Amino acid sequence: MTERTNNPEHSDSSLFKDKTEQNLILYNDDYNDFDFVIKSLMKICGHFQEQATQCAVIAHYNGKSSVKKGSYSHLKPMKTALIDKGLIAGIE
Questions:
Q1: What are the pLDDT digits (tens) for 20-51?
Q2: What CA–CA distances, in Å, run from 50 to 8, 14, 42, 66, 88?
Q3: DSSP string, 8-66
Q4: Are 79 and 25 in contact (CB under 8 A)?
Q5: Is CATH 3.30.1390.10 what the domain over 20-91 is classified as, yes or no?
Q6: Quick count: other Cβ atoms within 10 Å of Cβ 75?
Q7: I need a surface site. Which of 26, 62, 64, 75 has the fewest CB within 10 A?
Q8: 83, 32 Cβ separation under 8 angstroms
Q9: φ, ψ (nearest 5 deg) of residue 11
């Protein structure tokens, strides 16, 4: 039989998120043009133009694109910055 404890390390989901690799997801929208999305990805995520273009095209045709991988705490500021620019982003 497994004994359950109230260990804060196991109950805090943010700690779990930082220990696993997450994906910053860019979702397609009908409002922002490719140039704006590409420039935003270059500035916020540090992509080169080619990588940013590929991510924008993938999001356009597939509905979403993984634009960056890393810990939750590393990706959260990028997600916030993308949203602040009017893009739709999330972390999975």
A1: 899 999 999 999 999 999 999 999 999 999 99
A2: 43, 33, 10, 15, 21
A3: HHHH-HHHHHHHS-EEEEEEP-SSS-HHHHHHHHHHHH---HHHHHHHHHHHHHHSEEE
A4: no
A5: yes
A6: 24
A7: 62
A8: no
A9: -95, -15
